[in-house]
Fold this protein.
Amino acid sequence: MEFNENILKILRKKDLSEYVVATSVTDTDQVRFSADSKDLFNHWSEKSAAIFISRGKKIFSTTISNVEMPEHEIDKAVSILNTLPENTNYMGISDKKHSYGSLRKFKKINADIDEMASTVLNSALNAGSDRVAGLVYNEFSTIYLDTQINEVEYSEGGLHILVRSFIGEGTGQESSHLGFDSKSTSKDLEKMGREASETAKLGSKFSEGKPGKYDVLMSPYLVGNLITYGSSLFSAYNVDAGMSCFENKVGQKVASGIVNLIDDPLNFKGDAAVQVDEEATPTKRLQMIENGVLKTYLHSTSTARKFGAETTGNAGIISPHPWQLNMLPGKESFDSILQEMKKGLYVRNAWYTRFQDYRNGIFSTVPRDGIFTVEDGEITGSIRGIRISDEIPRILMNIDQVSKEQMNVKWWQEIHSSFMPYVHVRDVSISKSF
Amino acid sequence: MSGELCEKLLDAAEKKSRYAEVRFMELEGSGAAYRNGSFEGAAYSKYSGYSVRVLNNSLAISFSNSENYEELLKALDIAVRRSMVPGKSRIVTKSDGRKEWVVSGSKKVDNVSLDDKISMLRDNDSLMETLGAGVRMNYISDRKVKQVFMNSEGSQIRGEFSRISYFYFAGILDSGEFEQSTGEFGSTGGYEYFDTLNLRDRITDDIGAIKKAMHANHMKPGKMDVVIGPEISGIVAHESAGHPTEYDRIVGREGALAGESFLTGKKLPMKIGSGAVSVIDDPSMKGSYGFYVYDDEGIRSRKRYLYRKGYTDEFIHNRESAARQGVEPNGGGRSSSWNMEPLPRMSTTYIEPGDYSFEELVEGVKEGVYIKNFTEWNIDDIRFNEKYVGKEAYRISNGKIAEQIRRPVIETNTIKFYSAIDAVARDMEFFAGQCGKGDPEQGVDVWMGGPHARLRDLYIQ
């Protein structure tokens, strides 16, 4: 590809087995706000090249920002490659020639993020928030990707809106992501601000939670958080490393029969949609869990060859990862799930999920932004000071209801862009601070 | 290429703004990894760029890694145009003059071969395997940083430093039971730091301890006296003293991300614990992983008491948060890269050492627990409700260390934790970490650690 030609000319002379050059050109804007006004505007204009090279089983990666004059860095990379030991786990990148004829083209979304920030901020303030914090992003990158046999240009990006409301000690948060096929109206933004404020108001009067086993209605944010942290357990890299509770579980039941989880990279309603993986394999909708049964790990060409499988289009060449997870909707409405609850908790969100045992998926996470008690189908109060301290496999198996409503959820590093429903989980272990 | 366009860009920026800054950073890093007996790969990156921050009716920053002046002017114009929109517009504009600083250590990053680094990883991997760890990951990395800061008040700070780090993960599987451990070490300077660590002994002790922990019993929950090790006193100081005293959190600027602080809206100073407790954050601690002479906003670094004798004291500030409180910035403005805004950040955070020996702390406990270090941990976003799960821990009986126990849990709140401390040891030990904040999230290098400490009557699960 012409854009990468400077780099490719040099690489072709180096007697390499394989190479991947991914030059990204980024044009991103952000507005941040807190209290009752805007804090800062940020603009990013960046160009950098991520280069992967191999000679047999010797591999090396480098990232350079001096894209116009890359000779020195590439010479250095190749000289280092020569001295390296082999990576015996490395099985090569894709050797399939692709045409990419059906790739969609996009431009940066035309959005007034200042106006969007004002709308969501004022909506939350008008709904009674003591103070508000949040941001609006408009992200856009074009990636020029070349391997020794493939070349492709594609775009990524979208809008991300985040608002958090504070009323007394109550907090509420709403957060969304919009891809190239989504549209946001000022009514949607007003609704986000209003709902964040309503959650904060409900949480402003609270009592201390009690430890024990609870049925928990998890909002799409909480489901997104747990799935985000749990998603590395599906990567063939982590399975191979002995770091996954899903080792030897392909074809087996790993979740309740009503759970269907897919990787949904071609869904451009979300901002993490991507058409090509990091070794130029076209991505695809991938069924990861079907009716509770684990169908596949996430693979690059290298991990797939090691496992005797096919790439799933999820490279990371060394460590595959999901793009945009989607827990498919169920049959029940949120209202009906809530109304059927005899006694339990409705938890809106969580953060700081940490594992004490990756192998068995033992973790805890700190609920926030709405922790409500439920009795006889009604929200009866708000609590604080609790943790979900449980195991990922047990939570997946104990899901007994999935809502038909879904939300585009994304928040910071805690929730990767995904589409999640509400789920009802039996017998969740709750601990608390003493 | 090392920021030649800074002055020219600043000239242009100050003509279009009430106040302007230009930053340049070049980060040159390399790393290697070893996993389960196999070399995993190596990486190298060299990444540089400019940020220009302007103040008019509000603050705006443009980040660009172009070395073309015309492109940088376009980026500046975007920031200037946006800074005309109303918004918060307070920032301390002072200058610390023209200064240069360099820290590269005695065993410089450029003088240590990749072969030597890989050998270290291979040796540690082999050692872990010998010790029975079936899951093993070893990473080594180093980074050289060149930075320039200039502002329209005459500040011109040039700094160069290097940092090194080593991280391992080890896991032991036995009859369905699994125990895992991580170790993270780092320093600002060169590879001489690793010569002082006795890493092989540390790894041997650590894996030996988790192996025994797998077959140890859990404690009966209840209130008891607790002696905590440096790793725990360090993570507690970082999480529940350092984070809540970052002033941008107190005023809500991080509210939708890393959160606010339990100090938000409180009358300050506020009593947070016993008079035996003071917590310090000190970027001027030489050799520490969070060391720097000038922060990323050109402000001289210095030691700060976050808590002093049980009360809140000073807060961590960058230029913007200092203006919000009406004080001088205190060298806490850190940025992980040229394309990240400087935020109030920690460096090396620790409980101030006391007069006790470790043995004296234990002798003062009739029945209790010694929790040496931790595995899982987390804390709520106002930095109040926190949990630390013990990795290596022992029962204490009649003032003596008794049998090993498995995964005791401290799950408490900040006030209760610091109020329970009655004695602090004079020993100190530090560990490296990455602290995340901001959006885009930026991790900065920090040291956590400190002395052993004793807590009375804490509930252990």
